[in-house]
Amino acid sequence: MRLFRFFNKDTLSKSQNSFYAVAIMLFLWAIFDGIMSYLAPLVITQGGMSKTVMGVIVGSSSIFGAIFDFLMCKIFKDTNYRRVFLLMFLFSLTFPLFLSQAKTPFIFLIAMATWGIYYDLKNIGQFDFVARTSKEEDHSSRFGITQVFQSLGYFVAPLIAGLLIIDTLTFQPFAFALIFLGLSFIVFLIINIFKIEEGKQFVEASHKIRRFNFLSEFSLWGKIGNFIFPVLILTMFLNIIDAFFWTIGPLFSETVESEKFGGFFISAYVLPALLAGWFVGSITKRFGKKRTSFLALILGSLLFGSISFLPSQLLIIPVIFLGSCFIAIAWPSISGAYADYIGESPIYEKEISGLEDFFANVGFIIDPVLAGLLADKLGNLSSFSVLGVLGIILGFVLLKMTPKKINIRV
Fold first, then answer.
1. Which of 99, 181, 270, 398 could bond to 32 as cystine, CB 3.0-4.6 Å?
2. Rounded CA Rg of the chain
3. Residue 289 contacts residue 336 (beta carbons within 8 Å)
4. How many domains does the chain have?
5. Domain range holding 169?
6. What are the pLDDT digits (tens) for 106-117?
7. What do you get for the CA distance between the two ends of the chain, in Å?
8. How far apart are CA 188 and CA 237, in angstroms?
9. Domain CATH number, residue 86
């Protein structure tokens, strides 16, 4: 219903028009990225690489992303989501071109570098857009709804890729990925050509150009990171949870009694993001963004921690679904907090969004090692219980140590 209302100028404000246009753009882009995420490990292993080497190559995308997070503070002198999204599309285009032609580890690494960079550009542009075009109390709601659109894209993408790959991997799935990238770019052009306005700008672009050397920039990251450290740690752990499911989930699916049942494991984790985004704003307005995210982590981790103690495998799917509902609330809640910090201190926008992306990448770097070690030593289900226990402990620590109001004063 909301999608149809997007086209009604009489029922939506200019700010809503712009917001839903960007949300549709990100939905189409997520289908592209989801298809490419599905194809990447297949291409690498079919290129003669072992699964271990494949894991290292895929993980390198997060390393490149983390490096870019730091360098982008020197590259972008005035962050604006329009320019950032344009760069995102340019780098997105290079990824399937490099990956489809890659034959050597060096070319694979170049492809992974473009992957890590364009994904970080998406995050930077999204933070800038939400911070500029919505009030502080609406930040979590806006991130929640964009999460819905993107999650729907990531839900559809593997279905499309699976239908296109029958016996051998051809260029056909790459072509479909590029089609969705092109459709996303068309929406981006419509936003710019027809000048869909954002309404009131809640964050004015800073024209102060701070010419720091790398040592000074690193020091600034440390100072800002000290203020928002609890939020950064939560970001890292949420990404560890996400990567954990995509790393261990397929292994578990192969060991269950029914293949069809096993296939629901990842779906049960992904689906809640399609639901939680619509009402997370009302929750954070009552309990606060940080408190909501910490409590959601604790409740979700309690359910994940119970997995290995369940009497029947049939109970695993609903428990995963309920636990993921809480984690799906934590994501937009903490993203809304970052947007608050950007709105309050726009001169440090690049550093704040860079730190968020950096810790997200650290989570995806840590996870393959952590997940593999736990699965080898304890088994697939027990590793999820350990993850749940870690989440409970971390949630309570963050809830206790994090001040109610964080003001960045550098």
1. 181
2. 21
3. yes
4. 2
5. 11-193
6. 899 999 999 999
7. 45
8. 32
9. 1.20.1250.20
CA atoms within 13 A on the CB side of 131: 29
- Give 26-94 as a DSSP string: HHHHHHHHHHHHHHHHHHHHHTT--HHHHHHHHHHHHHHHHHHHHHHHHH-SS--HHHHHHHHHHHHHH
d(CA 156, CA 179): 14
Domain's final residue, options 193, 227, 258: 193
Quick one: 63 and 113 in the same domain? yes
Q: Do 400 and 268 share a structural domain?
A: yes
Which two tokens mark 312? 């029947």
Residue in the block written with tokens 């550098």 = 410
pLDDT in tens, 131-148: 787 777 777 778 778 878
Same domain, 186 and 282: no
Question: What is the predicted pLDDT for the residue at 322?
Answer: 95
Closest CA to 94 of 14, 194, 177: 177
With contact defined as beta carbons under 8 Å apart, do 117 and 60 qualify? no
- Band (193; pLDDT cuts 50, 70, 90): confident
pTM of the model: 0.72
| In a domain? residue 200 | no
Residue 365 lies in a domain: yes
Question: At 303, which amino acid appears?
Answer: L
Same domain for 227 and 79? no
The answer to whether 172 and 164 have CB atoms below 8 angstroms apart is yes
Measured in residues, the chain has a length of 410
Single out the residue of 392, 203, 175, 165 nearest to residue 300, CA to CA. 392
